[in-house]
Amino acid sequence: MGQAESHNEMDLEQIQELCMAFMKECPSGALHLHELKRIFGIPASCEEETLYIETVFHSFDTNRDNTLDFIEYTAALHLILRGNLEDRLKWSFKIYDKDGNGKLDREEVKNLIRIIYKIKIHTTAINMTPNEVCDRIFELVDQNHDGQISFTEFMEGAQKDEWVMNMLKLDVNASGWVMQNCVKMT
Protein backbone atom coordinates (compact mmCIF):
# COMPACT_ATOMS: atom_id res chain seq x y z
CA MET A 1 0.00 0.00 0.00
CA GLY A 2 3.03 2.27 -0.05
CA GLN A 3 2.02 3.54 -3.49
CA ALA A 4 0.33 6.87 -4.01
CA GLU A 5 -3.38 6.75 -3.37
CA SER A 6 -5.91 8.10 -5.86
CA HIS A 7 -6.89 11.74 -5.53
CA ASN A 8 -10.45 10.92 -4.41
CA GLU A 9 -9.57 8.24 -1.88
CA MET A 10 -9.61 9.34 1.71
CA ASP A 11 -6.57 8.56 3.76
CA LEU A 12 -6.86 6.62 6.98
CA GLU A 13 -6.33 9.74 9.09
CA GLN A 14 -9.45 11.34 7.58
CA ILE A 15 -11.45 8.17 8.21
CA GLN A 16 -10.21 8.14 11.81
CA GLU A 17 -11.49 11.73 12.14
CA LEU A 18 -14.92 10.54 10.98
CA CYS A 19 -14.81 7.72 13.55
CA MET A 20 -13.90 10.21 16.26
CA ALA A 21 -16.83 12.39 15.14
CA PHE A 22 -19.09 9.34 15.57
CA MET A 23 -17.88 8.79 19.13
CA LYS A 24 -18.18 12.48 19.98
CA GLU A 25 -21.63 12.87 18.41
CA CYS A 26 -23.03 9.71 19.84
CA PRO A 27 -21.30 8.28 22.91
CA SER A 28 -24.15 5.77 23.27
CA GLY A 29 -22.86 3.98 20.18
CA ALA A 30 -26.22 4.22 18.40
CA LEU A 31 -26.12 6.88 15.69
CA HIS A 32 -29.51 8.16 14.54
CA LEU A 33 -30.16 9.69 11.13
CA HIS A 34 -30.37 13.25 12.48
CA GLU A 35 -26.96 12.77 14.15
CA LEU A 36 -25.41 11.51 10.92
CA LYS A 37 -26.78 14.55 9.13
CA ARG A 38 -25.24 16.75 11.83
CA ILE A 39 -21.84 15.01 11.49
CA PHE A 40 -21.81 15.83 7.78
CA GLY A 41 -23.45 19.23 8.10
CA ILE A 42 -26.46 18.36 5.94
CA PRO A 43 -29.00 21.19 6.14
CA ALA A 44 -32.67 20.21 6.07
CA SER A 45 -33.12 22.63 3.18
CA CYS A 46 -30.86 20.58 0.88
CA GLU A 47 -33.36 18.00 -0.39
CA GLU A 48 -31.05 15.97 -2.64
CA GLU A 49 -28.27 15.59 -0.04
CA THR A 50 -30.90 14.72 2.58
CA LEU A 51 -32.37 11.99 0.33
CA TYR A 52 -28.90 10.69 -0.45
CA ILE A 53 -27.78 10.49 3.20
CA GLU A 54 -31.11 8.88 4.19
CA THR A 55 -30.67 6.25 1.46
CA VAL A 56 -27.10 5.54 2.55
CA PHE A 57 -28.11 5.44 6.23
CA HIS A 58 -30.88 2.89 5.69
CA SER A 59 -28.72 0.72 3.44
CA PHE A 60 -26.20 0.23 6.25
CA ASP A 61 -28.71 -0.17 9.08
CA THR A 62 -28.42 -3.93 8.72
CA ASN A 63 -30.44 -4.82 11.81
CA ARG A 64 -33.19 -2.30 10.93
CA ASP A 65 -33.19 -0.60 14.34
CA ASN A 66 -33.08 2.93 12.82
CA THR A 67 -29.57 3.50 14.18
CA LEU A 68 -26.07 2.78 12.98
CA ASP A 69 -23.84 1.16 15.53
CA PHE A 70 -20.10 1.73 15.28
CA ILE A 71 -19.55 -1.42 13.19
CA GLU A 72 -22.27 -0.46 10.69
CA TYR A 73 -20.86 3.07 10.50
CA THR A 74 -17.27 1.97 9.86
CA ALA A 75 -18.43 -0.63 7.32
CA ALA A 76 -20.29 2.15 5.48
CA LEU A 77 -17.24 4.43 5.53
CA HIS A 78 -14.97 1.66 4.31
CA LEU A 79 -17.25 0.58 1.47
CA ILE A 80 -18.13 4.03 0.22
CA LEU A 81 -14.72 5.62 0.64
CA ARG A 82 -12.27 2.79 0.05
CA GLY A 83 -14.27 -0.15 -1.34
CA ASN A 84 -13.55 -1.67 -4.72
CA LEU A 85 -15.80 -1.07 -7.71
CA GLU A 86 -17.48 -4.48 -7.61
CA ASP A 87 -18.44 -4.09 -3.94
CA ARG A 88 -19.77 -0.56 -4.54
CA LEU A 89 -21.86 -1.84 -7.47
CA LYS A 90 -23.26 -4.68 -5.30
CA TRP A 91 -24.19 -2.09 -2.68
CA SER A 92 -25.79 0.11 -5.35
CA PHE A 93 -27.90 -2.82 -6.59
CA LYS A 94 -29.04 -3.55 -3.05
CA ILE A 95 -30.18 0.03 -2.62
CA TYR A 96 -31.99 0.13 -5.96
CA ASP A 97 -33.77 -3.15 -5.12
CA LYS A 98 -36.23 -1.61 -2.62
CA ASP A 99 -38.51 -4.67 -2.45
CA GLY A 100 -35.57 -7.09 -2.13
CA ASN A 101 -36.75 -9.44 -4.88
CA GLY A 102 -33.38 -9.54 -6.66
CA LYS A 103 -34.62 -7.63 -9.71
CA LEU A 104 -34.97 -3.94 -10.47
CA ASP A 105 -38.15 -2.64 -12.03
CA ARG A 106 -38.52 0.75 -13.71
CA GLU A 107 -40.00 2.44 -10.61
CA GLU A 108 -37.11 1.33 -8.39
CA VAL A 109 -34.57 2.62 -10.91
CA LYS A 110 -36.50 5.86 -11.58
CA ASN A 111 -36.77 6.72 -7.89
CA LEU A 112 -33.02 6.57 -7.33
CA ILE A 113 -32.16 8.14 -10.68
CA ARG A 114 -34.18 11.18 -9.57
CA ILE A 115 -32.03 11.53 -6.43
CA ILE A 116 -28.78 10.96 -8.29
CA TYR A 117 -29.89 13.29 -11.07
CA LYS A 118 -30.50 16.13 -8.60
CA ILE A 119 -27.04 15.68 -7.10
CA LYS A 120 -25.16 15.15 -10.38
CA ILE A 121 -26.92 17.96 -12.27
CA HIS A 122 -24.74 20.43 -10.34
CA THR A 123 -21.46 18.76 -11.36
CA THR A 124 -22.17 16.84 -14.57
CA ALA A 125 -23.62 17.84 -17.91
CA ILE A 126 -26.70 15.62 -18.13
CA ASN A 127 -28.89 16.43 -21.09
CA MET A 128 -31.58 13.84 -20.34
CA THR A 129 -34.50 13.77 -17.92
CA PRO A 130 -34.57 11.09 -15.20
CA ASN A 131 -37.23 9.21 -17.22
CA GLU A 132 -35.01 9.29 -20.31
CA VAL A 133 -32.03 8.11 -18.25
CA CYS A 134 -34.12 5.22 -16.88
CA ASP A 135 -35.34 4.26 -20.37
CA ARG A 136 -31.78 4.34 -21.71
CA ILE A 137 -30.51 2.18 -18.82
CA PHE A 138 -33.20 -0.43 -19.48
CA GLU A 139 -32.45 -0.34 -23.21
CA LEU A 140 -28.75 -1.01 -22.57
CA VAL A 141 -28.92 -3.33 -19.55
CA ASP A 142 -32.17 -5.37 -19.69
CA GLN A 143 -30.71 -8.06 -21.95
CA ASN A 144 -33.72 -10.39 -21.97
CA HIS A 145 -36.21 -7.48 -22.29
CA ASP A 146 -38.42 -8.68 -19.44
CA GLY A 147 -38.81 -5.18 -17.99
CA GLN A 148 -36.59 -5.98 -15.02
CA ILE A 149 -32.85 -5.83 -14.44
CA SER A 150 -31.35 -8.84 -12.71
CA PHE A 151 -28.23 -8.59 -10.57
CA THR A 152 -26.17 -10.19 -13.37
CA GLU A 153 -27.55 -7.77 -15.96
CA PHE A 154 -26.82 -4.86 -13.60
CA MET A 155 -23.21 -5.90 -12.99
CA GLU A 156 -22.48 -6.74 -16.63
CA GLY A 157 -24.18 -3.61 -17.94
CA ALA A 158 -22.36 -1.33 -15.54
CA GLN A 159 -18.99 -2.87 -16.26
CA LYS A 160 -19.44 -2.86 -20.06
CA ASP A 161 -20.66 0.71 -20.52
CA GLU A 162 -19.06 3.69 -18.74
CA TRP A 163 -22.20 5.84 -19.11
CA VAL A 164 -24.34 3.12 -17.53
CA MET A 165 -21.82 2.72 -14.72
CA ASN A 166 -21.83 6.44 -14.00
CA MET A 167 -25.63 6.46 -13.86
CA LEU A 168 -25.99 3.31 -11.74
CA LYS A 169 -23.24 3.90 -9.18
CA LEU A 170 -24.65 5.50 -6.08
CA ASP A 171 -21.40 6.85 -4.76
CA VAL A 172 -21.72 10.08 -6.79
CA ASN A 173 -18.12 10.96 -5.90
CA ALA A 174 -18.74 9.97 -2.29
CA SER A 175 -15.12 10.52 -1.29
CA GLY A 176 -15.25 14.08 -2.59
CA TRP A 177 -18.62 14.66 -0.94
CA VAL A 178 -17.42 13.30 2.40
CA MET A 179 -14.17 15.30 2.23
CA GLN A 180 -16.13 18.47 1.47
CA ASN A 181 -18.53 17.81 4.34
CA CYS A 182 -15.74 16.75 6.72
CA VAL A 183 -14.63 20.37 6.65
CA LYS A 184 -18.07 21.35 7.98
CA MET A 185 -17.70 19.16 11.05
CA THR A 186 -14.30 20.44 12.21
From TrEMBL:
Q: Which InterPro entries match?
A: EF-hand-dom_pair (IPR011992), EF_Hand_1_Ca_BS (IPR018247), EF_hand_dom (IPR002048), Recoverin (IPR028846)
What are the alphabetically sorted keywords of the record? Calcium, Lipoprotein, Metal-binding, Myristate, Repeat
Q: Which SMART domains match?
A: EFh (SM00054)
> Domain named EF-hand: which ranges?
48-83, 84-119, 129-164
Any one GO biological process: visual perception
Residue spans making up a coiled coil are none
SUPFAM superfamilies for this protein: EF-hand
What GO cellular-component annotations does this UniProt entry give?
cone photoreceptor outer segment; photoreceptor inner segment
CDD domains, per the entry: EFh
One Pfam family, short name: EF-hand_7
Q: Which GO terms describe its molecular function?
A: calcium ion binding; calcium sensitive guanylate cyclase activator activity
Tell me the protein's name.
Guanylate cyclase activator 1g
Q: Which species is this record about? A: Oncorhynchus kisutch (Coho salmon)
